[in-house]
């Protein structure tokens, strides 16, 4: 759906948050590159998304994906205030963009409460980040079983 939403734009940046840390992830990344085709500029940035958004003010940017980015930020910064600072910087960069930004994220709060503290922190931060993004977004689509549900 995200690629389809971007299909009409000529200048497109795919902001990839994944890192090829093992063969399986390398294969996934290669598959995604083939899927989106050659009309995309790929920027790989696992942590500092706000910086990339500010450096590319006029091109459509598709970010894939927010929850993986959040996981990367949590791995990079141990202090929760540093994690929240990165989230703030990202949300500020989103609000100042004039060009279209498409974000892919996951809803992780619909399942059971995780058993360990880090997993609960991740779930809580993902939920709060998704809420902040939804509040400043013009359009929010929830995908369920490949079907779009327009929330906003």
Structural category: alpha/beta
Euclidean distance between termini CA atoms: 16 Å
What is Rg? 15 Å
The CATH superfamily is P-loop containing nucleotide triphosphate hydrolases
Kindly estimate the percentage of residues that lie in beta strands according to DSSP: 15-25%
Overall form: globular
Mean pLDDT: 95
Low-confidence stretches: none
CATH fold group:
Rossmann fold
Number of strands: 6
Give the tally of structural domains: 1
Number of helices: 6
Topology:
Elements: H1 2-6, E1 12-16, H2 23-36, E2 41-44, H3 49-55, E3 60-64, H4 66-76, H5 80-96, E4 101-104, H6 117-136, E5 141-144, E6 147-150
Parallel strand pairs: 1-2, 1-3, 3-4
Antiparallel strand pairs: 5-6
Question: Summary?
Answer:
By secondary structure, this protein is an alpha/beta fold. The protein has helices at residues 2-6, 23-36, 49-55, 66-76, 80-96, 117-136, and strands spanning 12-16, 41-44, 60-64, 101-104, 141-144, 147-150. The two termini are 16 Å apart.
């Amino acid at each position: 759906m995200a690629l389809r939403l971007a299909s009409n734009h000529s200048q497109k940046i795919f902001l990839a948050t994944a890192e090829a840390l093992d063969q399986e992830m390398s294969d996934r990344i290669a598959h995604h590159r083939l899927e989106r085709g050659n009309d995309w500029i790929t920027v790989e940035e696992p942590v500092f998304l706000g910086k990339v958004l500010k450096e590319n003010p006029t091109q459509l940017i598709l970010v894939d994906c927010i929850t993986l980015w959040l996981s990367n930020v949590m791995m990079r910064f141990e202090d929760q205030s540093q994690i929240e600072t990165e989230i703030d910087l990202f949300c500020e960069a989103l609000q100042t963009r004039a060009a279209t930004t498409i974000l892919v994220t996951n809803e992780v709060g619909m399942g059971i409460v995780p058993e360990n503290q880090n997993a609960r922190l991740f779930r809580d931060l993902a939920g709060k980040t998704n809420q902040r993004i939804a509040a400043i977004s013009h359009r929010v689509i929830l995908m369920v079983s490949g079907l779009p549900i327009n929330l906003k």
